[in-house]
Fold:
Amino acid sequence: MRILVTGGAGYVGSVTVERLVDAGHEVTILDSMVTGHRQAAEPLATLVEGSFGDRTLVERTLVDRRIEAVLHCGARSLVGQSMSDPALYYHENVIGGIHLLDALLAAGVDRIVFSSTAATYGEPERVPLRESDPTRPVNTYGATKLAFEGAMRWYGIHGLRSMSLRYFNVAGASERHGEDHDPETHLIPNLLKAARTGQPATLFGDDYPTPDGTPIRDYIHVIDLADAHLLALGWTASAAAGTAEVLNLGSGGGFSVREVLEAAGQAIGTPIPTAMGPRRAGDPPVLVAAIDRAREVLGWTPRRSQLPEMIGSAWAWEQRRGET
Ligand SMILES: NC(=O)c1ccc[n+]([C@@H]2O[C@H](COP(=O)([O-])OP(=O)(O)OC[C@H]3O[C@@H](n4cnc5c(N)ncnc54)[C@H](O)[C@@H]3O)[C@@H](O)[C@H]2O)c1
Structure:
């Protein structure tokens, strides 16, 4: 299959491109490098530098590269930044996204898989979260992702076949690619950084109504996540014209911040310095995905999403990167 991956030089995008290329697909990456890294762009893929919001560039790329399906991973995705600059998030994630959809229509490409997020739900009424649960995002980031999901659904009237994948907490690394955000807001890379530098990692609250007082989150190994994308792209080929599907991608279980901290200390063989800070606004006590729908629709099962494997692979990747 000939696939365009927006954001293919980012964390999730690079691992997914690696899996796609290894499976024999012909991949074109479209990345503006705003938070991506040139060295993360798979050498076996063709790299086009630019924005998915540049309609002319996208349409030309779709036609020239004879693209059959698009994987839309590119986005602004920092919750804090989305609250200090909502306009940026609406311009990039929503307006840019509409330009992307218009380019697809113009080029006659009717298959798209989208990197959505658990942030579309906001504070859950119950866990595990199901795709049919209310979506009431509590930050601009989640709101813009939900808005784009809606746009894809209504572009179904033009025949678009779309799948939104609502990721929970992505973790771990492949052989070649790993997580490299700046600023880094995710727990596991921040714990690894604390282990490396000796500077304590801040944990946000230990007075939650959970067994050990710290929040519980659902972590999914980035390779399990990437494999779901391969299946999702296959699904778009056989879906009826106009279909829009939404699936959660998590492991279906949760770990508390303290459990992750302990597992990280064990995985790397040294205790990790931390400092306890206050709760962060909008952080619910528990966020765990119900994943039966992804199992049913895609025939997908997460296989690597245990803490030692996720943390160990991330640490190994950081060590390898440090050596190069
Ligand atoms: N990492 C997670 O835990 C997580 C969780 C839920 C959802 N997501 C979503 O998954 C996707 C990938 O996340 P990530 O962690 O790999 O982030 P990332 O920042 O590492 O990757 C995003 C990539 O998109 C590119 N990009 C941004 N705006 C662009 C534009 N206008 N045109 C072209 N390229 C653009 C960036 O340069 C970067 O390479 C995002 O859509 C994010 O919202 C990630």
The chain has a mean pLDDT of 97.
